[in-house]
Write a structure and sequence with these properties.
With 376 residues, this protein is an alpha+beta fold. The protein has 13 helices and 17 strands. The strands form four sheets. An eight-stranded antiparallel β-sheet has the order 13-10-12-11-15-16-14-17, with helices on both faces. A hairpin with a 4-residue loop joins strand 15 and strand 16. The two termini are 15 Å apart.
Length: 376
């Protein structure tokens, strides 16, 4: 099924009698069950007002097309969404803007600019009863009742099928620079990253790449300001090298797409904890004898963990993450592990009850609850 209009989508969902697997580009690596419903027909730019920093686009529009349209006007999606394809070996399909929103995909710049949901102005979607719903608009404003804009971002397609999204966009900065310090372990690097985030120098990226033992700190803006702030950070924290312009951008594209772990099928986890708890988790894995490699983004708050061996070690990892008050998502694993280990971290009872109530409200027939959890 591939509807080309929102009305066709609503008709299809109203008449559906069995679970559906909602798919845009199919790049998120999420196991799906049911007849495939493709969103690629719901594409195209519906409204773009560069002066108002506003873009309205069909949910099935490829992310690359959205970024190309913005680049022509010197603008971008400030939340820096990643491309999962190489990391998850997910095939030739292109990620869609609906998939980015549905999974709340947010890259290294989240520490400064916020997450995808923070740039989402409005949504249109069709729920499991075939109803067309909309919320928000072209400008930020308060809402009453359900805040569907925030609710749909990160819902992984469990509440409905996005047909259109409205986004706030921002100008591409004049310059960027990245301070690189090599040879640091996780604890020392994360301490530096947290110190950098505590300065007034408006850091837009703070990461540590474990495989290369590189601490990375990025600043962006007007050329003079970038040079000044980079100098002050270098005086405070040190650097082996300062990369600028395209070299800096290429480095952060590798961090964003976790290219250190591409080309492998070893179990890969995405873990969120407090930034200072990132090294604590790595130390606990080391003590437990779990071989691993890590990339720490968001000044240590986001960890990409590649574990050694075929087993995903879910029970041990999630117990440690629970102790730290975080959550761990299994992003990549073999078919056997996928069947045995839930992708998403188990929710506390109260939160699970709330999520169940929302699904019953927006998907009363359970069309989207059978593994169809991403737009791709």
């Amino acid at each position: 099924m591939r509807p080309s209009t929102e009305a066709e989508l609503a008709e299809l969902l109203a008449g559906a009698t069995a679970p559906l697997a909602v798919r845009g580009g199919g790049t998120r690596g999420v196991p799906v069950v049911g007849e495939v419903l493709e969103t690629g027909g719901l594409s195209g730019v519906h409204l773009y007002e560069p002066g108002a920093l506003t873009l309205v686009v069909g949910a099935g529009t490829p992310l690359e097309e959205v970024e190309a349209v913005l680049a022509e006007k010197g603008q971008r999606l400030a939340f820096e969404p990643m491309d999962h394809r190489a990391l998850l070996a997910s095939g030739p399909g292109a990620p869609t803007i609906g998939g980015v929103v549905a999974a709340n995909v947010s890259g290294p710049r989240r520490v400064q600019a916020g997450a995808a949901r923070d740039h989402l102005l409005g949504v249109r979607f069709v729920d499991g009863a075939g109803r067309v719903l909309r919320n928000g608009g072209r400008v930020m404003k308060n809402v009453t009742g359900y805040d569907l804009v925030k609710l749909m971002a990160g819902s992984w397609g469990t509440l409905g099928v996005l047909s259109e999204v409205s986004l706030k966009v921002l100008a591409v900065p004049q310059a960027e620079a990245t301070l690189v310090l090599r040879g640091q372990g996780a604890a020392a690097a994360v301490a530096d990253l947290c110190r950098a985030m505590g300065t007034p120098w408006d850091v837009s990226g703070a990461a540590w790449r474990g495989p290369s033992a590189e601490r990375l700190i990025r600043v962006e803006g007007l050329s003079g300001s970038v040079a000044y702030r980079a100098g002050r950070l270098r005086d405070l924290l040190g650097a082996d090298e300062v990369l600028e312009g395209p070299e800096s951008a290429a480095l952060w594209a590798a961090v964003r797409d976790v290219s250190d772990f591409a080309g492998s099928m070893a179990p890969l986890w995405r873990v969120s904890v407090k930034p200072t708890d990132g090294p604590v988790l790595l130390a606990a894995l080391e003590e437990a004898g779990v071989g691993h490699a890590a990339v720490c983004d968001w000044s240590g708050g986001l960890l990409w963990l590649q574990l050694e061996g075929a087993a995903p070690r879910a029970e041990l990892l999630r117990a440690e993450v629970d102790r730290l008050g975080g959550h761990a998502t299994l992003m990549r694993a073999g078919a056997e592990a996928r069947a045995a280990v839930p992708m998403f971290h188990p929710q506390p009872p109260a939160l699970a009850a709330l999520a169940r109530g929302l699904r019953e409200r927006f998907d009363p027939r359970g069309l989207f609850a059978q593994g169809a959890m991403a737009h791709g």
